[in-house]
Design brief:
two-stranded antiparallel sheet; about 40% helix; about 270 residues; 8 strands; 6-stranded mixed β-sheet; alpha+beta
């Protein structure tokens, strides 16, 4: 059959070429769509891989934060409980009268040399170790009232001494004597231990030189350590600012730590 060569031949062939071009465009579109789908799937897969890692990191950070908070709570509890378990010691504390009040003597009686007209004070009680919080002598250190009737002597000095034997609660089982005062007349270079020996014998010391008894009181024991349960309650001037009630600061700190811990846990769950 002869092939048409006129205008009709062109008209017939054109649609074929158009169809081929269309087919090529469709192929390219399909290829592009496939590539786009692959990219989207890869991105989605990347997010799926990354999300567990982010969650693990967030959970690990939250766990470290909560562990730190728990450690803080434990420290607060230990610090809050420590004063309640603090031990007291039953011993004679050494004081001096200064500016109208008793001041804890920073030097030992074998070292301190009182001046003429000075006043030494002693108190037997159950007190914390360290001095400043120890129970003070009850009577005032009035030198004129104690030594006013004692005549001065050449080469010697007068030192007033106040002895407070404490309360029945402080006693190791004996009846404490009543507080008393005395005026010691001693050489000018005498230390407080020598002053005390002159007016309140017998004195008892342990092998380490710790003063255990004044005027024979107490008969036994020396600086005995007591637990909190055996420590007598103090009253009056010896109470200071101490309180047996709950520590408000400790409670508030614990509440704050609990709130922060709860917030950390909530944040970690929110990131899942």
């Amino acid at each position: 059959m002869p092939v048409p060569t006129g205008p009709g031949a062109t008209d017939v062939a054109a649609p074929r070429r158009s169809g081929a071009a269309s087919g090529g465009a469709t192929g390219r579109a399909a290829t592009s769509g496939a590539a786009g789908g692959t990219t989207r799937r890869a991105r989605s897969a990347g997010r799926l891989c990354a999300d567990p890692q982010r969650r693990r990191r967030a959970l690990a950070a939250a766990a470290r934060f909560v562990a730190g908070l728990i450690a803080g709570v434990l420290i607060l509890l230990v610090l809050g409980a420590a004063p309640a378990q603090a031990a007291g010691y039953r011993y004679w504390s050494f004081w001096k009268w200064s500016d109208g009040a008793w001041a804890y003597q920073q030097q030992g009686p074998a070292v301190y040399v009182p001046q003429d007209g000075g006043v030494d004070g002693w108190r037997f009680a159950v007190s914390p170790d360290g001095g400043q919080d120890a129970a003070r002598p009850g009577p005032a250190g009035d030198f004129a009232a104690i030594c006013g009737g004692t005549a001065e002597q050449p080469g010697r000095k007068r030192v007033a001494v106040v002895l407070d034997f404490g309360t029945a609660a402080d006693s190791p089982g004996e009846t404490p004597p009543e507080p008393r005062t005395a005026c010691a007349v001693v050489p000018g270079n005498a230390n407080s231990a020598e002053v005390l020996a002159a007016v309140a014998p017998p004195l008892r010391y342990d092998t380490n030189g710790l003063l255990c008894a004044i005027a024979g009181y107490p008969r036994a024991g020396c600086g005995d350590q007591l637990g909190a349960a055996n420590r007598p309650a103090t009253t009056g001037a010896d109470d200071g600012n101490h309180s047996s009630g709950p520590d408000i600061g400790l409670i508030a700190g614990g509440a704050l730590v609990a709130v922060l811990a709860g917030g950390a846990i909530w944040q970690a769950r929110r990131r899942r």
